[in-house]
Specification:
The protein has 118 residues and is mostly helical. Helices cover 65% and strands 0% of the residues. The chain folds into 2 domains: 41 residues; 58 residues, Orthogonal Bundle (434 Repressor (Amino-terminal Domain)), CATH 1.10.260. The protein has 7 helices and no strands.
Length: 118
């Protein structure tokens, strides 16, 4: 096992190549341990060099509605009037703390996504 920090793009590519080779390694073996450590190093490199922004709160709501096959009337049952839902989905009205709590509970959207500015 030759593990070293991933500092460059070439180190990253080499680590990905090695990961593919040992991907099916058995746990509690030398290659299994290497796989686990290499996975952590790759994850750390990706978090630093390829950060993923959180989704827009309204787009997250629309996406979750689509997943659940919800319409505006379903959302209105969660946060109030149908006209309010239309204003929110068209970004003409901001989400209140109460709405954020209800949306989090009903749609299981993380609150850190819902509280962002948009």
């Amino acid at each position: 096992m030759d593990i070293k920090p991933i500092k460059t793009e070439q180190d990253y590519q080499d680590a990905l190549t090695r990961l593919e080779i040992i991907f099916d390694s058995e746990p509690n073996t030398a290659e299994g341990d290497e796989l686990e450590i290499l996975g952590m190093l790759i994850d750390n490199y990706e978090q630093v060099h390829f950060p993923i922004d959180m989704p827009d709160p309204i787009e997250a709501i629309k996406f979750r509605m689509e997943q659940l096959n919800y319409g505006n009337s379903d959302l209105a049952q969660i946060i109030g009037l149908k006209s309010r839902v239309s204003e929110i989905l068209n970004k003409k009205r901001k989400l209140s703390i109460g709405m954020i709590r209800k949306l989090h509970d009903a749609l299981q959207i993380p609150t850190d996504v819902l509280v962002q500015k948009y």
